[in-house]
Design brief:
The protein is mainly beta. The chain has helices at 55-61, 122-128, 184-189, 211-218, and strands at 2-4, 10-14, 21-26, 31-35, 39-42, 46-52, 66-72, 77-81, 89-102, 106-110, 114-119, 133-146, 151-156, 159-163, 167-171, 175-180, 194-199, 202-207. The chain contains four helices and 18 strands.
Length: 227
């Protein structure tokens, strides 16, 4: 179990990198933002409110709409948070900084962190095979995000290439473009997919697994209906 009380809130991480589980100790009257449906358990003095994030555009796209806010009333309280996917949880303390997350990676944050949708554009969203939206997290405070598989942090000093399905997060200041590896003939016949080519200086967080190959792997084992 990893316990951290360096900056921001007192929290602990358990079962990383396979089945990450987050516990946060909230001081009295302190709030925490949590991805909808990620609360596993909490003290009875925590009060929840649901807020819409991203507006009507995210509603039309079928994206997750809601972030729940939990407030510790009449004393401190504890909340346990479990992401939907089996995998790692990463903590970053932002100091007037911005991080962009894939649309399913946000887990929780300090109330002072501004969480909003960012439109990638039709070209980047469509050709990446991922979402048309990123999640922009900015400000000063705690941020937790999760992945499918383990999370590896990479320092980018000039350029770096990552498969689109392995991108978890990246820092503001990095530019990216979506490309195929070796052209479109390679896209259909090599088994490789589309990639994000990052340029500039910053950090990229990648996940060690991606869901689509796992889904393909388990497909032959699915029960079949007899006609």
């Amino acid at each position: 179990m990893e316990n951290t009380v360096i900056k921001g809130m007192d929290f602990s991480l358990e079962c990383n990198p396979d089945f990450g589980f987050l516990t946060v100790n909230l001081p009295s009257n302190k709030k925490i933002k949590v991805e909808a449906a990620a609360m596993a358990s909490m003290d009875t003095n925590l009060v929840m409110k649901t807020k819409l994030k991203g507006g009507f555009s995210r509603f039309l796209s079928g994206e997750s709409l809601f972030i729940n806010e939990f407030t510790a009333q009449n004393g401190s309280g504890q909340i346990q948070i479990a992401p939907a996917c089996p995998g790692d949880i990463k903590h970053v303390y932002l100091e007037n900084e911005t991080i962009y997350l894939q649309n399913t990676s946000f887990l929780a944050s300090d109330e002072s962190i501004k969480v909003e949708s960012k439109w990638q554009g039709l070209t980047k969203g469509f050709f990446s095979g991922e979402s048309f939206f990123l999640i922009r997290c900015s400000g000063t405070g705690d941020l937790w995000f999760n992945s499918y598989g383990g999370i590896i942090e990479i320092d980018v000093t000039d350029g770096y290439v990552v498969d689109t399905s392995h991108v978890v997060a990246f820092t503001e200041g990095l530019e990216y473009s979506v490309k195929s590896v070796g052209g479109y003939k390679s896209l259909f016949f090599s088994g490789e997919g589309l990639v994000c080519k990052f340029t500039g200086q910053g950090k990229v967080w990648i996940q060690t697994r991606k869901i689509s190959p796992f889904v393909s792997w388990i497909h032959p084992f699915r029960p079949k209906k007899n006609n």
